[in-house]
Write the structure tokens for this entry.
Amino acid sequence: MPDENGAFDFQAHAQSAVATYLPLQTFYRQLALVTKGILDESARSRSIKVQSIQAREKDPESLRHKAAQPSPDDPSTPKYTDPLTDITDLAAVRVITFFPGTLAEIGALIDEEFAVVERSDKGAKLLEDERFGYQSIHYLVKLSPGRVALPEYAPYAQSTVEIQVRTILQHAWAEIEHDIQYKSASVIPAEIRRRFVALAGMLELADREFQAVQDADRRLMEDARKQVKVGQLEDVEITPDALRTFLDKRLGRDRRISDFSYEWTARLLRRLGFSTLGQVSACIEGYDDDILSRAATGGRQGQTTRFELMLLAGMGDKYLERHFFARFDWYRATCVSHLDRMVKAGIQSGRYDPLSGSTEEPGDAKAAQ
């Protein structure tokens, strides 16, 4: 496509690419959304937690700019001879994870759910080119043969999608990088170069530390579950997960209870002065949750409500004094009413105090039977 002087007309080349693309823009938007849907469902079914999955079709102005680029090998010719074929991110999806360890899980998912045409590590390429930047893994994929055999996927059989996979910190760098003037380490001033190197190192270290924190959290969680199951509670710190395991074993599982309820109850235990499940077990020892619930409320309540009634019985006035709702008259009246009904049912409240370790033996709730 030469201009009037016989030189290649890059702007006309780019304009032609955009004109061809515009009628297809909706198609590429749908292709990106279809790919996002597959990734969403596949990650959910594998219990892979990600920060977000984003889909987009190529912006026409971005396509125009890209199609007008000259070839790095021969500046008199275009980098993309056939832009709609050579530019591979007309439909693109970005998967942003919280932790580096999830990148491999998403990679395995992509290998299973798509036909992978190409995989490239942009971080390694940046190092080779002595360019500043941060890691990102790019995949060029097509829908799997099994999917395109279905009518709803058949229109996308020959189309390629770009999938970018990066952590949230890698994404932050990539977004900021758009505003960085110097991209090459060979031309950047020494002072700025030192800052870039330090910043890139800090981000990589932060990614690794976040991963280490997640790994440690999982390890502590698994250890706590094992200790609860064998009854070794003295050193088990109160966390929502450890509390759930403890209550499921002690009171029976209740699938109606939400994660928020366990988080709230764990915070309540801390507020009451408990630090370990061993203390909690000592406080409620001798009480039957079902008997307490029926005596205080007239029926069998949910797991965490029965547990709070056990704490009320085990601590007596101490429970009410330290509770989040202690300042509300309605809550104080409710607790006093529960205690009165327990007494009438022959259940004696205790005086367990986790802050001092002191306790008075409660009456055996089973005696009420």
